[in-house]
């Protein structure tokens, strides 16, 4: 058993570097809460030519178009599209990084919050590809598969790290991203991609109710014709949609739910 303490030293990561070789692949993700067999959310994530296109399927309102978040690492930005309202918003990765830095700098008397910004996990990895990062505050259990290449593993890790930061910034009150970033670091070290991730957070001070989330990841090392069509449509939307403030786009999204 390996014990690892991970404080994501943001200044030490070459987080804006471009990939040496950009692999094209796709991941379909279903997220479940507790023992439910109905997905809480569904995403289709497409990696192409160094860009990442993440499509959030709207299950509650299936007549609405999928919301799209594009991670454009080479230009240091996320672009979020609302196809139904034909608007887009841009968030610079510098803003995301600053928000994450402030989370790390904040001081809390709550043990869970302290752990969340400076996670300290015990790590176990079995021969059948199961990875466990455990602590008294939260535990991750993962089933994994080898990435097609070291570059693909790095692409997944960097996108997942950035997306975790971005989600924390865009969803006030959510758990800081650093525990998931610790998981991603363990994956890329072994050249792995997750096929299933289970997160358990027990009841504790600051957490009134135990939480269990499970995500299933279906990975394919090639893009499908319909994926390329989707990306082409998104490229057109990027050039034609009206640019608005991200907070305004979020308010619009809330009004649709």
Structure description:
- With 257 residues, this protein is an alpha+beta fold.
- The protein has one domain (2-256).
- Helix content is 31%, strand content 34%.
- The protein is built from six helices and 13 strands.
- The chain has helices spanning 93-105, 111-117, 150-170, 178-189, 225-240, 246-256, and strands spanning 2-5, 25-33, 41-48, 51-57, 67-72, 77-82, 87-92, 120-125, 130-134, 139-146, 192-201, 211-220, 242-243.
- It has a 13-stranded mixed sheet, with helices on both faces.
- Strand 2 (25-33) and strand 3 (41-48) form a beta hairpin.
- Helix 1 (93-105) packs across helix 3 and helix 3 (150-170) packs antiparallel against helix 4.
- The chain is globular.
- It starts with a strand and ends with a helix.
- Residues 6-20 have low confidence and may be disordered.
Distance between the termini: 45 Å
- How many structural units, i.e. domains? 1
Integer average pLDDT: 89
What's the SSE pattern? EEEEEEEHHEEEHHEEHEH
Adjacency order of strands in the biggest sheet:
1-8-9-10-11-12-2-3-4-5-6-7-13
- Fraction in beta strands: 25-35%
Strands, total number: 13
* Helical percentage: 25-40%
Key phrases:
257 residues, alpha+beta, 13-stranded mixed sheet, 6 helices
Give the SSE map.
Elements: E1 2-5, E2 25-33, E3 41-48, E4 51-57, E5 67-72, E6 77-82, E7 87-92, H1 93-105, H2 111-117, E8 120-125, E9 130-134, E10 139-146, H3 150-170, H4 178-189, E11 192-201, E12 211-220, H5 225-240, E13 242-243, H6 246-256
Parallel strand pairs: 7-13
Antiparallel strand pairs: 1-8, 2-3, 2-12, 3-4, 4-5, 5-6, 6-7, 8-9, 9-10, 10-11, 11-12
Helix pairs in contact: 1-3, 3-4
